Every structure is written in C-alpha cells, then in structure tokens.
Amino acid sequence: xxxxxxxxxxxxxxxxxxxxxxxxxxxxxxxxxxxxxxxxxxxxxxxxxxxxxxxxxxxxxxxxxxxxxxxxxxxxxxxxxxxxxxxxxxxxxxxxxxxxxxxxxxxxxxxxxxxxxxxxxxxxxxxxxxxxxxxxxxxxxxxxxxxxxxxxxxxxxxxxxxxxxxxxxxxxxxxxxxxxxxxxxxxxxxxxxxxxxxxxxxxxxxxxxxxxxxxxxxxxxxxxxxxxxxxxxxxxxxxxxxxxxxxxxxxxxxxxxxxxxxxxxxxxxxxxxxxxxxxxx
Length: 281
Known about the structure:
Blueprint: H1 12-19, H2 23-43, H3 48-67, H4 71-91, H5 93-104, H6 117-136, E1 141-145, H7 152-156, E2 159-164, H8 167-173, E3 184-188, E4 191-197, H9 212-223, E5 227-231, E6 238-242, E7 245-250, H10 252-263, H11 270-280
Parallel strand pairs: 1-3
Antiparallel strand pairs: 1-5, 2-4, 3-4, 5-6, 6-7
Helix pairs in contact: 3-4, 6-8, 6-10, 10-11
C-alpha cells in the first residue's frame, strides 16, 4: 500500500500557493533578500537608518488605520507617505550616490569596509606616513580604526568629514590650535568619517607617563574591537591600543605590520605581530 506523504494539517489554500513556487521563484526571493540586506548594511552606519525606521513606523500606522477604517487619518497618512517618498531621493542623496558608485565599481555585494589588497596597502601607507610625520614634529594625534563594531555613537560626538584618507589631509586635521585638532579621528575603510571625536577614558590606573590621549585610547579599546593609534604630544612616541592593552615606542615599520592585518585580514593576530616585533629588537 503506497504511503501518503501529504500534509493534511496544511490549509488547502496554502498548499496551493506552495505548489506554485518553483526554483526560479526561490532564486528570485533570495536575490531580493540579498539586495535588501546590502541596502540595510549600507545604511546601518549612517544617520539615514533612523529615517528608514521612521518610515517603517509610519507605514505600520497607516496599515493599522486602514484596518480600523479611520478614513480621515488614513487619508492624511497616505498623502504624507506619498510626499515622503517623493522627497526620498533628496534625503538619501549621499547614500544613493554611494550605492551607485559601489555598483559601478562592482563592489555592491562586497563589504564596503573591506578593502582589496591595493586599497589596503595605500591606506596603510598614507596612515603610516602621516603618523611618522606627526611623531617627528611631536604633534599629538588619536586615530581610531573601526573594525566589526560600529562607532556611530563616537562619530556623533565629533564633526562629520567622510573624506578619503591621505597623509596630507590627516596632517591638516591634527594641526595644533585648529577646530579638528582635539579629539580623535575615526577611520572606516579608506575614509576618515569623523574628526574631533570624544573617547571614553579608562578607569584603570596607569603610569603618569600616559596622558589623556593614551587613557582615551585604552578606554575605547576596552569597550569595542577598534584599534587606536596614538601619537604623544610630549615625546612623539607612537603607541597602539587594542583590547585594553597599549603597546608603546613603535616605529614606522612596526606600525605598518600592525595595521596591514586590520585592513587586509591575515592569520596573524595583533599580539603575535607585537611579539614578533619585540623579538626582532
């Protein structure tokens, strides 16, 4: 007697819908899901995500009002939503431009903060060149390299820049007695997204040789996975803080070896690189 594998508990209408879904329909749904996820990923590190959440709330309220047959409120909300969608290209102009740039460069499906080898080498070169110059002139500086954990709250405490990283630009940012000098610069990918940002100070006790910049670097590294580069204003010493630990008296070559895995991930960990550098000394 043949076995019956049908699902009697599934409603007939639902079974009818499921029977019409083929492989191409599943592929279609997956592509749309990936595109929506990439759009969300692109917006989540910007203030535009707040606007998106507001739009979703407004659409939800509109659906509820339609279901409750509140005709006047529904009419007003529908007109408001229409006006908002007309204004979206203006509101989201920077995000739309960035999406089109990524699409044109073939990087729409790639993580925007992950760089290819050439970009990674270029960013590290510019960062090391800037830090070396700042150290030679004893110009204090704080550079935060964002990794997996977003730093939007830190960026909000400073001034938004969103500029391509070059050594000359970074030197201008940290010129003493200028509006952007105090505080930290936040690096995301190959761009400095904010400057003059405030970092939380560590509550642990350290040597008096470590000033406010070093305490801020350690404090942030205790709370997230960012890597923080510090240039001392008193001595010109280059230091790097990560996971609540600080490594001081680095030279340009050591800094380059530490930064490269951050922008172009490798198997070696930060601590392994520091230990190898110390062994060579």
